[in-house]
Fold each of these.
Amino acid sequence: MRLCFVIACMAGIGVGLVHLRKRESIARHELLSLETEHVILRRTAQQQESDLGYLTSPRQVADRVRTMDIDTDRQMEPVRLAGPAERRRLRNTQRIRN
């Protein structure tokens, strides 16, 4: 009777260990696949940053302006943001907030 109990306990421990190792293997596989996906996404983000830097370079912007025939001769007024002191001096600006 005692021997059967010991054998049953050892079998239960063995089954538990196999189950834990299987779970560990599944978790390791999932972690590896997530890391691989992370590397791919990081490379894609770096490539997009590089492309954006290239497209916003002064030479590329000038080329696109020439290609789209945009008039750049007109002078634009600089944008002014009214600070708290300036807002007090101006009339009818009580509701304006930055």
Amino acid sequence: MNKKMLLAAALSAAILSGCQTIKEEHTQYLNREQNIVNVVGSVWRIDAKWPGEHQANRLAEHLYTSAVKFCERERQAMLPIRGSTEDGAKDGSRPASGWLEFRCQKGLDYRPEYKGLTGTFDVEDLTDFSNTQK
């Protein structure tokens, strides 16, 4: 009986602590900021801030995929121009932030065609051993 009560108490504590962690992650996700503005012509800039995130590599990947999706809505390709990311503070006082400038442009519609390897040789070159003698 004591084992069952101990197991139930441990399970309840694990569930409650897990719910708190999920709630914190959800709050941080909701507090993320992102906006896309037109710089000039077909050049766009996407900015984002992620509170609670201290490594900006996931943010950089998110900026890239968001830019690709933005251009794909217009059936265009995304060409990155320049960008930057900055890691957030580990204590959460400063969010991870980053920006990416990109251009939306029509695709080149390039379809490479493999034609195989081609070469020409003379049969006499293959049977002549004069080049191998010293």
Amino acid sequence: MIIQQVSQKKENYMYDVKITNNYIYSIFLDGGKKMIVPPNGGKAELNKWGSHILNVPGMGDINFIDLSETKLNQYTTPKLPWTEATWGGLIRYRSLDAYFRYEGQGKVDVVVDKWGSVALEFAKGGGMIVSLDDLIVV
């Protein structure tokens, strides 16, 4: 994975996360010690999210990684202007990865359906499915 880092200071800018849980189990935060969204239509809104892990019982973890100014060069192109935005994040779930970038205050909407599948929407900026290796043997 090739990354690019620039030297701006990120102060109050992070992304907000809105979670809707239509799954049959509650969703837990950072290792499962704190229930954050109740089942069957529960909702949560979290501000200035940063890096955290949501646990979806029976399905696994949704790993939110705050990339700050770091860019994934292989997914940065002037053809998609949002990929050149200052701030970014990466969401990893069940060997799938979503890369997103934004300016100012980002926003990520997460919906867990009744089967435990996850839908993401990036209301500010943009996002795409990317392919990052989970393991490399050298």
